[in-house]
Amino acid sequence: MNLPIIEKSNPELPARWKAWVVHGIRVLLFAATLLTIHIHSKSQSQFPEPTHLEVDLERLSQWFSDGAIGEYDAETGMTDVIDASREVVGHVTMTSPQGDRSIGFSGPTNVLVALDRDFEIVGLDVLQSRDTREHVDVVLASEEYWQQFLGKNWNEVADLPRVDAVSGATLTSYAIAEALVARAGGSAPRLKFDQSLKLEDVSELFPEAATLTLQEEQSSRWDIRSAAGELIGEVVSTSPFAESVVGYQGPSQALIALDADGTVKRFALHDSYDNEPYTSYLNEDWSFPELFSGLTLKQVSDYDLEEQGIEGVSGATWTSMAVARGIIEAAGQLERLKQESNEPAESEPAWVISSRDLWTLGFLFVGTGLAFSPLRGKGWIRVVYQICLVVYLGFVNGDLLSQAMLVGWVRHGLPGTSAVRLIVMAGIAFSVPILAKKNVYCTHLCAFGAIQQLARNRLPWQISVNKRIRSWARFLPGVLLAWVAIVTLFDLPFSLVDIEPFDAFVFQIAGTATIAVFIGGLIASLFIPMAYCRFGCPTGGMIEYFRRTRRSDRLGWADLLSLAVFLLAVSLLLSDR
To answer: What 3-state class would DSSP assign to 45?
Structure first.
């Protein structure tokens, strides 16, 4: 008797779809929470209104010995400072709200500005800051930074040509300067290089030059004429077009000399954030300044340094290659301007990938590829990569994800092209676990994770953690994330860098708590493999929450915590209305 064959159904397909649906809802809920927090933060006033500016007498006495707060002038946005006879002796104002869009490492900073009766700046101080405490402290301690603004008339601040940043707190110091410019009425401040040129600045390029005239429609091009009035060429500045191209320590400004027929004669380094002796090496080299000689700007814009085998000036490779890339970028942008409408319009400098961005993105590419490659099992390859990761991404660049940085982004928005490498890093960290079930950031991109992997089983004395203790210890990252949520939602005065070790890689700004977590986590990892990653890292715990697994179709305590944070965020947002 032939019985009918009943095909067995495939139970895996429904289970797979269920896992995707549940995990998708999980991710969407988290994204909705972040959006709600962002809207809530934006709806709140970042800082007190300027009409309610309160300055204690001790702070005010730094600049006005007998000063007291007087009346607020709505027309100027200034608050008068009066003496005992109620005579106006000066003024004070703050950069908020005009400067609130200038985001440093993790938020804006509100600066108090003190001016005399002639509206010249006599003092500055930080009133409040949403930026990371350690970065702000470094800026506050830099007398040279604040000295740049003293003595300047308030109207001059709006056209501030250049500000030197503070090493170790570049984003924060630039954001403060941009906030000052915005408050003074300026827009799109150019804070890197002065755009003015004198005849002596081009004498090396055109010894026969008698006059230097700025072209009306191009603020970065000057006509050069002889004593007889004959046009003998022009000079083109790479600023502002190449101000995002960074060398060893920062961008450089080069001057390109063009013959009367529009071909390049040579170039010269005019100004640079890089230091001696590297900048001198470049100008002293006899051949490198003539790299683009005989080419038009169109040909320069298409020039491929790698294809031509250009390696830069010996002893100043990073600086010289950055200058060359800047010239290529400037030539490209000038050509694009030429092809656009004849209507004069100011051009915003386009973002150009810097050497720092390039190296970090290279590590992200190699690390992500290694995570999916059989080479990850090769011990010597893994060790060499981890050492390079620790040295470069850790101690040289300090490029790591942290709760302080991520919370700053959620509250105030992304900082823009200055942190593009970190934005890409975050994209990989959170997207790959969802799509490919691998936590590549913690295993292959985090410098502190790499240190722990290098320290793993190096000592003969290893501690075996009891299963019960281990199960409870795994809740610690979740507890820390809950604390992060509370600090974020209720805007508590707590520095989130203190709960993670990552700022210790930039030791110039690291606080005691951060260094303690770094040392404690490293020591613990010598006896308990990957101790901090497994039992103490909130950022790693957040990324792991996004990782799709076989159990993604099941709800757990982490989902309840996520739902609770979402509901709390929604309730706070509704209470704003």
So the answer is: coil
Spatial contact of 326 and 245, defined as CB atoms under 8 Å apart? yes
DSSP-derived letter for residue 348 is: P
| Residue 402 C-beta-side C-alpha neighbours within 13 Å | 24
CA-CA distance, 187 to 190, in Å (whole number)?
9
Weakest-pLDDT range from 327-336, 338-347, 386-395, 424-433: 338-347
pLDDT digits (tens, 9 = 90+) for 267-276: 888 887 666 6
Asked if residue 195 lies in contact with residue 239, where contact means CB atoms within 8 angstroms, the answer is yes
The alpha-helical segments, DSSP class H, found in 437-556 are 440, 447-455, 467-473, 476-490, 512-527, 531-535, 538-546
The angle subtended at Cα 44 by Cα 43 and Cα 50, nearest 5°, is 120
d(CA 33, CA 42): 14
Query: Per mean pLDDT, which range of 120-129, 343-352, 373-382, 389-398 is the poorest?
Result: 343-352
- Which residues on neighbouring strands pair with residue 259, listed in sequence order? 233
Residue 175 backbone phi and psi in degrees, to 5: -65, -40
Burial of 84 (0-12, 13-18, 19+ CB in 10 A): exposed
Contact (Cβ atoms closer than 8 angstroms) between residue 86 and residue 99: no
- pTM score: 0.55
Confidence of residue 28 (pLDDT cuts 50, 70, 90): very high
